[in-house]
Write a structure and sequence with these properties.
The chain is about 40% helix and about 20% strand. The chain has about 230 residues and is α/β, with parallel strands linked by helices. It has a single domain (about 10-230), classed as NAD(P)-binding Rossmann-like Domain (Rossmann fold). Strands 3-2-1-4-5-6-10-8-11 form a nine-stranded mixed β-sheet, sandwiched between helices. Strands 7-9 form a two-stranded parallel sheet. α1 packs across α6, α3 (about 65-70) packs across α4 (about 90-110) and α4 runs parallel beside α5 (about 135-155). The protein is globular and about 40 Å long. Pfam families: NAD_binding_10 (PF13460).
Amino acid sequence: MAYGRGMRIVIAGGHGQVALLLGRLAASRGDDVAGIVRNPAHVGDLAAIGVRALVRDLESTTAAELAGDLEGADAVVFAAGAGPGSGAARKDTVDRAAAVLLADAARAAGVPAYLLLSSMGVDSVRGGRSPEGVDEVFTAYLRAKLAAEEDVLARDGLRVGVLRPGALTDDAPTGRVQLAPSVARGAVPRADVAAVCLALLDRLVTGPAPAPVLELVGGDTPLGAALAAV
């Protein structure tokens, strides 16, 4: 499959559900998209949607090695995650440390824009708080996401966007959302998350930059209008 000549995007965690939807959307409009995956068995899945696979383990590589994968990119997306079956330790090594590593590599490679896929609820652990009724592993996940946000948002010379979706579903996209620095808890189809991610990448690369942290759930506002307001 031939790859386009539009924006060059590298997605860390390229085989994740949102990442695959984002990769397909970007490639279908002519962007040059690469996905970083740990498992070589996932290479074919990415190729099938027009995304080049870069096989690299974000828990064992260095920023210098990763920077080589990012040369010439217009933007990077952190969509990796330790996954629901992982313990608290891997929430830190993947959801925090790998996100920070990607930012280090992006700076070293001269990539101008970085989009971090985070999560609603991270404010509940701010200041060391432990949210009531939340188990230890999910609390560790929220702490890791918050630490990643704080690190990348403090970077000079890198245009950073943070997107915090609500509960993710596999429902068909609606094209209608609530998107703002703070929204009430709710759910949102992964396909709508992917569409918002692509639009935010456009804004981060070409401007005007959106608000640095945005929360996203399903809603009544057409996606384009919601994006224009932020």
